Amino acid sequence: MNLTGVVSVSGKPGLHKLVGQNKSGYILESLDEKKTKSIVNISTARLASLADITVYGDDEDLKLKDILAKMKAQGNVPEAKADAKDLRAFFYEVAPSHDEEKVYGSDIKKIVGWYHILKDLPLFNEEEPKAEEEAGEEKSAETKKEAPKAAKSPAKTAKPKNDKAASTKSAAVKKTGGSKTP
């Protein structure tokens, strides 16, 4: 599942896709049927990327994308407006090691609601671009290895430039010196 660019905005219902940024704020597109675009202020907006959200766990935090993947595998996900006890029982099935004291019923309702928004979108069935990131890391490692070689060659060309610059300065001094003397 590819949650890159999908954000939750505090004070705005639903989920949004981060389209871009301008000098006054973030440009967001809602993920509902209306596909409305809006701009939220950079200084006051609190955005949370779904790819970065974690849920409190007993031993360690649980990633939201892992919980959503388990919900997808489960198949029979209750509605967000279902009874709180039913939602809690369902959440124990998909995230058995979540911290019961720190994860509130409202959090579970929000996660289930997000699942129902995302399940019909094509990005929910897309693979995460890990292969591209790993390939990018390998390329950056290769360029780091080649970088010292590239740094040496400009140093060789820098010496003639410095000599040329020095000769230009001396020529400028000669011109000014020549015009001062009659």
For this entry, give a set of tags:
BVU_3817-like_C_sf, 15% strand, five-stranded antiparallel sheet, 48% helix, DUF6852, disordered C terminus, Arc Repressor Mutant, subunit A, alpha+beta, SH3 type barrels, globular, BVU_3817_N_sf, two-stranded antiparallel ribbon
Shape: globular
Return the string of H and E elements: EEEEEEEHHHH
Query: CATH fold name of one domain, please?
Result: Arc Repressor Mutant, subunit A
> Which CATH-level-2 architecture of one domain?
Orthogonal Bundle
Could you describe the largest sheet, including whether it forms a barrel?
5 strands, antiparallel
The CATH class assignment of one domain is Mainly Alpha
Percentage of β-strand residues: 15-25%
Per DSSP, the total helix count is 4
The strand count comes to: 7
What are the low-pLDDT stretches, counting only 5+ consecutive residues below 50? 139-182
Helix content: 40-55%
Distance between the termini: 82 Å
Strands across the major sheet, in which order?
A: 4-3-2-1-5
Mean pLDDT: 74
Radius of gyration: 29 Å
- Report the structural category: alpha+beta
Pfam families: DUF5606, DUF6852
InterPro entries: BVU_3817-like_C_sf, BVU_3817_N_sf, DUF5606, DUF6852
